Amino acid sequence: MRIQNHYRSGFLRLAMGRVIASARRAAMVCLVVACSGISTTDARGIAPLTEIAASVQPKVVKIYGAGGYRRLEAYQTGLLFSDAGHILTVWSYVLDADPVVVVLKDGRRYEGELLGVDPVREIAVLKIDADNVAHFRLEDLPRPAPGHAILAFVNAFGVATGNEAVSVLQGRVSAITRLQGRSGAHRSPYRGDVFVVDAITSNPGAAGGAITDSQGRLLGMVGRELRDAANGTWLNYALPAEQLSQAVDTIVQAKPTPDTNDQWEPENPLTLAALGIVLVPDIVDRTPPFVDGVRPGTRAARVGILPDDLIVFVNDQFVRSCHEVVQNLAELEAEQAVTVSVLRDNQLVVLTLESPSPE
Amino acid sequence: MTPPIHQPTYGAPHTQPHGLIFVVACCLGGFVVSPAGAETPDIAREDEAVARAVQIVAPSVVKIRSLTGPDLEETPVRGTGQTSGVVVGDDGFVITSDFGLPDVPASVLVTLADGTQSAAQIISRDHSRHLVLLELAIDRPLPVPTATPDADVRVGAWAIAVGRTVGEEVPNVAVGIVSAVDRLHGKAIQSDAKISPLNYGGALTDIYGRVLGVLVPLAPQGSQRMAGVEWYDSGVGFAIPMTHVFQIVEKLKAGTDLHAGILGVSFDSRGAYVSAPKLAAVLPNSPAGEAGLRIGDVITEADGRPVETVMQLRNAIGRRYAGEKVRLVVARGAQQLMREVELVDRLRPFEHAFLGLLPIRGPASSSDVTVRFVYSGSPAEQAGIKPGDHVVSVNNRPVQSIGDVIEQLNTVQAGDEVALVARRGELVQRPRLMAVGLPAGIPRSLPPARGTLPERTATDRPPVGVVPLRLPEYANACTLYVPEDYDARVRYGVVLALMLPDQLDPERLRNLWRPFCDATDIILAVPQPTDARAWRPAEVRLVRRVLDHVRDHYETDPHRIVVHGYRAGGAMACLVALSSREAVRGLSIVHAALPDSLVIPANDPVQRLAVLGAHSGEGRQGRAIAQSLQRFRDQGYPVSTQQVSDPEQYVPQEELGELIRWIDTLDRF
Predict the structure, then answer these.
(1) Which residues face A269 on adjacent strands?
(2) In the CATH hierarchy, which fold is given to the domain comprising B46-253?
(3) Does domain B265-342 have CATH number 2.30.30.100?
(4) Distance (Å, whole) CA B303 – CA A167
């Protein structure tokens, strides 16, 4: 924008004329100016990234505790969610120390008290004796979609110490999907939705960090390092903020909340025998669920399931093994109708086994 | 379609208030007037642009699951049959990468963008680009995406990796830029978007929703199946250009598998980035061989493009398929030849030609090839060649040393006709021999390799007898045995004996070998590992250094450099032999099987290697050793075996004599 030099004769008279003529425009301009507040934002209210980062950094803390042996780092990240100093972080061995040290962005050190943990989501809440600290809000949470830009605030590799701010990464939401994670041979207990991002957040010390949208609003918390159960790649993922909020309810307010994996258990679970299906012997780890035989006069026989059919879906749930078929059926009541999709001669055949007729 | 335009955020509304109003407004603040605002990306508009591009390409990106078929267990990152694909034919054809689709034809299930499921068949593969074509059992047309034209694939442009491996209704997304084009010998586009099992097989898309390429696991080096997977999420990822995929799709639809094209030549492997592509070997049954190319020819042009280095030639050929024709311009001396060759997908392993003769080992200065011994039943014997005959020329090329003969024979194979000219006194014979393969058998007795020499005149000699060797850079101990009557006019074979001191005492080994070394002109070197319990692969360099030392200080015979490994030293001996092909000509292993992971390269015409395996033939170890030796045979190497019944004992005297005779015949032709 060029500020033009209007110091010419006759300017003022011209300008005064314009003022009256553009009264409406002037009002609009002033309104815009008033709305934009004291920070430098453009007309749409979007602040530059440098300012966003600066406003988020004080809400992210560095946590130090147990570890420091071989690959077990003794540090991780956390995020403040109340002005009284409540902190969300991952539940890990780092918190097995006494004391757990929390360092704010400006270098102030506190001892963190472990208030409680959510073992399913593997989240912990700490409390420090601080007042009026900048913090994230766990209400009015935005819901991002794949493709949206995100920022990650993590103390990866413990680079930041003392009064240094944690590292900022930029990326996008890759997908919103169910977590299938494992650590060595153990499956992660949380199986709900997570955000997968394309910023590399799977690094030592990053767990507990904050994922925000491009305006600094909290989207989620970086989870502990896990490999994808399906293909072994390191997962860059975050637990969504609403999961954090539920975890806080469980811990801080001691409100009993149901396990996210709580399933309604049927009184009389459906079995293969009830349907009349016999699968091939389940001898290897993941035997594909081929039908070995169908007993005459049963629901399966009536609907036309044949030997050598390969079961691929049970009620829209993809099944890869005999074990998964049994598991999926066990979530249904014996009297329920169930839709089964099978692969027969390279064609997909969808069959609905109706409720058994009443006696 | 108008592309989203990235506008710098100078802030301010576009209506410019005039004069006083403007000045007043500025004073109240609130406008981003400085250029600093232009540095911050306009995130909301970028989000919109990315979302729009993904929306355009999404209907063509599918989820693929393979149902039956083995899991590949080799690396921590494995394919377990869940991957993405891109529609390439509206009649139901989908392209994907070979990640997650094992070789065994698996039942494949495809989920389309709208949630429809369909069974699919694997139709064909492009092995050079890691692509697989599937055909779906579907009766409605599928949306085929637009490919980004080649001219629009520009470094620095947006590149969005779109997959449906984890995304169900909405594809999963990773964003980056185009880092480079024409990578991997011109086969791939490189991007820094996070490319991983989450999106292999999916579409690398530009900001307009057109497909730049299909994402595949490729690595900067190495073409094994899983090589590229180790580079997931690294910032270095690759996609095969969609324009190329559309070019080959008709062939793939017809069920044709595509393979990388091979020319059939080899170069001196040193200096591939600087030295000119001068042929060190031309395989006779290869495209190059059939086109009449010869050793020493220099390729100057490939398909109209000048090539000045070996790497440039590899770049030109690396992208071509078997069955395609390449126009080469070749310089032969002052001549310039033009040849059109058709590339093939594999070459028959090279089998060296054998006529049935052993040469007399004259002093280094002699310019004569005299026959020392004729193998019984060989083509030479049938043609009437006798010991004492002088070989004058091979295939019309005059020969003055065994080296010349070997160089000529490296250009032909077993089964080829070889023209020989041999002189016996006044009689000159010109037989045409049908060469056979190198023999597995070892002659029972041999005449001496050389006559006695006249009295030695030179007085100073390098150390002889038992010589302790200390190399400055290595802590390892090493002893040499040099025959007491060492004479610089004789060329000595070198045997590097590798074993663990507990399994065989070096002094005992020396005492066993001493008489043989004296009789057949062999220098024995016995290096020791630093850790008495095991050899470490890094110690290959030490062994190499010992060999270099011996060659520098003594007169050695390049045809009889042998690595000899006993039990735990056997794997080490293989490593040394296979990594020193330009020097080592014989590999002798006793009671040692090869590690399965050891890759045996194909037999090379110029870098000969003969293999002798001694084992008991029984039990699990015997079978494992037999399998290892068969792996060498499959690659075209001449393999001999010896029966040594006790796996705990070193080679007994009689078999040791046979082993020595095998070494003594390594200059056979």
Answers:
(1) A333
(2) Thrombin, subunit H (2.40.10)
(3) no
(4) 51
Q: Is the pLDDT of residue A184 over 80?
A: no
- Would you state the pLDDT for residue B556? 94
pLDDT at residue A41, rounded to an integer: 60
Instruction: List CB contacts (< 8 A) between B193 and chain A.
Output: 198
**CATH class, A272-353 region:** mainly beta
Please tell me the predicted confidence (pLDDT) of residue B230. Answer: 77
Band of pLDDT at residue A44, cut at 50, 70 and 90 = low
Show residues of chain A in contact with B20, CB under 8 Å. Answer: 15-16, 18-19
First to last CA, chain B: 72
- CB contacts of B82 in chain A (<8 Å) are 230-231
The answer to whether B611 and B592 are in contact (CB under 8 A) is no
User: Which CATH number is B465-663 given?
Assistant: 3.40.50.1820
Which candidate, A8, A258, A6, A255, places its Cα nearest to that of A121? A258
What is the pLDDT, as a whole number, of residue B331?
96
Look up residue A99 and give its two tokens. Answer: 């004391």
pLDDT tens sequence across B625-660:
898 899 899 889 999 999 888 888 899 988 999 999
Length of chain A: 359
* Residue of A335 and A158 predicted with greater confidence: A158
How many CB contacts within 8 angstroms connect chain A with chain B? 182
Which residue ranges in chain B fall short of pLDDT 70? Answer: 1-41, 68-81, 102-106, 221-227, 269, 284, 364-365, 458
Please, is A38 exposed, middle or buried when counting C-beta atoms within 10 Å of its C-beta (0-12, 13-18, 19+)?
exposed
Q: In this complex, do A175 and B170 lie within 8 Å of one another by their Cβ atoms?
A: yes
Which candidate, A225, A232, A229, places its Cα nearest to that of A187?
A229
d(CA B52, CA B45): 10
pLDDT at site B222: 54
State residue B295's pLDDT score: 87
**pLDDT computed for residue B34 by the predictor:** 39
Whether B174 and chain A come into contact, CB under 8 Å, resolves to yes
The single residue listed with the structure tokens 């324009």 is B243
- Nearest beta carbon to residue B20 from set A15, A174, A310: A15
A30 contacts B17? CB cut-off 8 A: no
Q: Are B282 and B293 in contact (CB under 8 A)?
A: yes
DSSP 3-state assignment of B354? strand
The bridge status of strand B586-590 relative to strand B556-566 is parallel
Q: Is CATH 2.40.10.120 the classification given to domain A24-252?
A: yes
What's the rounded Cα separation, in Å, for the pair A110 and A158? Answer: 17
Token couple for B269: 């492997």
Per-residue pLDDT at B227: 64
**For chain B, domain boundaries:** 46-253, 265-342, 353-437, 465-663
Confidence at residue B156, expressed as pLDDT on a 0 to 100 scale: 94
Beta bridge partners of B225: none
Strand partners, B66: B108
Beta-carbon count within 10 A of A339 CB: 13
Q: Please judge whether B12 and A43 are an interchain contact, meaning their C-beta atoms are less than 8 angstroms apart.
A: yes
> Is some CB atom of chain A closer than 8 A to the CB atom of B12?
yes
Is A109 touching B (CB cutoff 8 A)? no
Can you tell me the distance from the alpha carbon of A233 to that of B237, in angstroms, rounded to the nearest whole number? 15
Mean pLDDT, residues A56-77: 91
Chain A residues with CB under 8 Å of B29 CB are 33, 38
Q: What is the CATH number of domain B353-437?
A: 2.30.42.10
**Fold matches, B46-253 and B465-663:** no
Q: Which of B562, B381, B362 is CA-nearest to residue B449?
A: B362
What ipTM score was computed for the predicted complex, to two decimals? 0.73
Residue with tokens 């600093």: B36
Q: Which chain B residues are closer than 8 Å to A33 by Cβ?
A: 25, 28-31
- The overall average pLDDT reported for chain A is 83
Between A103 and A18, whose confidence is greater? A103
